[in-house]
Amino acid sequence: QVQLVESGGGLVQAGGSLRLSCAASGRTVSSYAVGWFRQAPGKERVFVSTISQSGYYTDYADSVNGRFTISRDNAKNTVYLQMNSLQSEDTAVYYCAAAPWATRERMKYEYWGQGTQVTVSA
């Protein structure tokens, strides 16, 4: 079992940047692919990005491709989401999650963090 804790959220102006971190404890995070999802008020939780165990494979939702970058440091048991050129539409609670393989399918993720709020002001 693995426990995940997100951090790095906050309030930022449109066009700004934030870097989210997902720190794992328990079983080593290198055993899992890790994904980021987000949930805006009144909307369902949707896929943002995912990274394979090795870090060689990454995938992004069209809405963030070219602006967000996912990476991982297995030695630190941490996965990151660098978010640049933030827009008001990026406002949401961001969750990291662990899965046996990198996928966009939310239901394949077995472990979830508690989420971190990202608010982008216009």
Secondary structure category: mainly beta
User: Helix fraction?
Assistant: under 10%
Give a short account of the largest sheet. 7 strands, mixed
Distance between the termini: 40 Å
Shape: globular
Radius of gyration: 13 Å
Number of helices: 0
Q: Stretches where pLDDT falls below 50 for ≥5 residues?
A: none
Strand content: over 45%
The total beta strand count reads 11
Summarize model confidence as the mean pLDDT.
Answer: 96
Q: How are helices and strands ordered from N to C?
A: EEEEEEEEEEE
Report what the structure shows.
- With 122 residues, this protein is mainly beta.
- It is 0% helix and 52% strand.
- It has no helices and 11 strands.
- The chain has strands spanning 2-7, 10-13, 18-26, 33-39, 46-51, 58-60, 68-73, 78-83, 92-99, 111-112, 116-121.
- Strands 2, 4, 5, 6, 9, 10 and 11 form a 7-stranded mixed β-sheet that branches.
- A hairpin with a 6-residue loop joins β4 (33-39) and β5 (46-51).
- The N and C termini lie far apart (40 Å).
